[in-house]
Design brief:
The complex is a heterodimer of chains A (about 375) and B (about 110). Chain A is an alpha/beta fold and about 375 residues long. In chain A, about 45% of the residues lie in helices and about 10% in strands. Chain A has a single domain, classed as Glycoside hydrolase, family 3, N-terminal domain (TIM Barrel, Alpha-Beta Barrel), CATH 3.20.20.300. In chain B, strand 1 (about 45-50) and strand 2 (about 55) form a beta hairpin. Chain B is elongated and about 65 Å long. In chain B, about 30% of the residues are buried. The chains are: A alpha/beta (about 375), B alpha+beta (about 110).
Chain lengths: ~375, ~110
């Protein structure tokens, strides 16, 4: 066979093998219906799965530059409204939502119980390192209510009887919290009666409770921890009707005495307002205290410190309103400076910010009222507000 | 079992996964939150234990929040939520209360 014939034969063989291969390929591409459905479902699962992760991680929350912060000075006039509203929120400081809370620019994080001190330090340092404006870091460290009880014991305030004991407890609790990185303690409780836990209230009458609470606060402050008297206007630690989600209480003058004393002596840094519908010495006019402009407004008339809402996701408060939006607006309109919202969904918290932002833009809530709260919060954080 | 049958079963399973993911994405709640106690078989009950003294905690929402703040919840005769061992504060929830709490936004 000549060289030309040999080459021609090779070309033919090559073409045939190519055709055979493409015929095999075309056969394999002929998917039956079930295989097509399978492929379609896998693609849908991948898309929906990814969307769920994006949503859960809060990656849909837009990130913005904090250009309004220069060192320790904040230019409030340059601070976007959305960021101001976010500063008024304290969320649950879970590790899985850290990125979302950072993007949102929340004012603070609240930590629940964790296994040991190192985990607390790691979480708090992580959050603070990635925040342009320092975060308020809070816990409910009262005594018997103790998120650190896995590794640190604390005396119940019901066992505290003298000023010295109260002051020392405040100082020790404060020093311990400071060591972990906390800045804010939702304590002391100044409710006069505790029928449920039997350990959260100081012993004695309203005068003794006020004096012991004041000594405890001074101890906390010596350790540079912000104190909170709770739960205004009182009557929260008593048995309630289990068939009512939102409970009522008749407030007596004695219940208000600790607040009057602590405000009068200019000792207390912040006051937490409860969800109770109250009558008597404080009348919330049928609304939950935390959402009552009468209750919060009157309190702010006497008290210049931070007014903090109790956690707002409790069904009792939520079910008072037809929609979540109504509740969000109510707790902002009533005048709370800081709102506790432990919703684990960052997109829902972001939605709250947008709902309030829109209310400000249409004049339902004044921007001045938002500015006043943000100014207080930033000042407490040690920043200079211009 | 033929491979075709196997593929049909797989597809039905995948369809269920798609439905589940869609429900999660669109936050479809099959039982309205906050009214879930009405569907529970037994009366929800929460108790607080401090130094051996047990008291009823009638405000279930508040109980859920406090239980959620604890380090762990373990199922014993009731669900017991606490932080640490020994004479620490304990929240004891029956099955109905625990189920109710788990449906709250703070617990998800």
């Amino acid at each position: 066979m000549s060289k030309t014939e040999d080459l021609a034969m090779r070309k033919i063989k090559f073409k045939r093998s190519g055709k055979e291969k493409s015929s095999v390929k075309s056969k394999s591409r002929r998917w039956n219906v079930q295989e097509k459905i399978f492929l379609f479902l896998v693609v849908v699962i991948l898309i929906l799965g990814s969307l769920n992760i994006v949503k859960a991680k809060g990656w849909l929350i837009p990130e913005s530059k904090d250009f309004f912060v220069q060192g320790k000075t904040v230019d409030l006039s340059q601070m976007p409204l959305e960021k101001k509203i976010a500063q008024m929120i304290i969320v649950h400081g879970s590790t899985w939502n850290e990125g979302a809370w950072k993007r949102l620019g929340v004012g603070g994080i609240h930590l629940f119980a964790l296994a040991n001190a190192d985990i607390y330090k790691e979480i708090i340092q992580g959050y603070q390192k990635r925040s342009t404006i320092p975060l308020l870091v809070s816990a409910d460290f009262e005594g018997c209510l103790n998120p650190f009880s896995n590794f640190h014991q604390s005396t119940a305030v019901s066992e505290i009887n003298t000023h010295e004991e109260a002051f020392n407890k405040g100082k020790e609790d404060g020093k311990f919290m400071k060591g972990l990185g906390f800045t804010l303690n939702f304590a002391p409780v100044v409710d006069l009666e505790d029928e449920i836990w039997k350990c959260r209230s100081f012993p004695g009458d309203e005068k003794e409770v006020s004096e012991l609470a004041e000594a405890y606060i001074l101890g906390l402050q010596e350790a540079k921890i912000i104190s909170t008297a709770k739960h205004y206007p009182g009557g929260t630690l008593v048995g309630n009707d289990p068939h009512k989600q939102l409970v009522t209480a008749t407030i007596k003058e004695q219940d208000l005495y600790p607040y009057q004393q602590l405000i009068g002596s200019e000792v207390i840094d912040s006051i937490m307002v409860s969800h109770l519908i109250t009558n008597g010495a404080v009348n919330s006019e049928g609304y939950p205290s935390v959402a009552s402009e009468d209750v919060v407004g009157a309190l702010k008339g006497e008290f210049n410190g931070l007014v903090i809402s109790d956690e707002i996701q409790m069904a009792g408060l939520r079910d008072f309103y037809d929609t979540l939006d109504e509740m969000y607006l109510a707790v902002f309109k009533s005048g709370n400076d800081l709102i506790l919202n432990f919703d684990e969904d960052p997109l829902e918290v972001y939605r709250m910010v947008k709902v309030v932002e829109e209310a400000v833009q249409r004049g339902e809530i004044s921007e001045e009222r938002i500015d006043n709260s943000v100014r207080k919060i930033l000042t407490v954080k040690g920043l200079v507000v211009e | 079992m033929s491979s075709k049958k196997l593929l049909v079963i797989t597809n039905v399973s995948l369809l269920l996964v798609v439905a589940l993911l869609a429900l999660i994405f669109f936050e479809v709640q099959l039982i309205p939150l906050g009214k879930a106690t009405a569907t529970l078989k037994e009366e929800a009950s929460c108790q607080v234990e401090w130094h051996g003294e047990v008291n009823e905690f009638l405000n279930l929402d508040q109980c859920c929040l406090e239980a959620r703040k604890q380090l762990s919840c373990e199922q014993q005769e009731r669900w017991v939520c606490q932080t640490g061992q020994g004479e620490v504060l304990k929240y004891q929830l029956n099955e109905a209360a625990y189920e109710y709490c788990q449906r709250q936004r703070i617990w998800r």
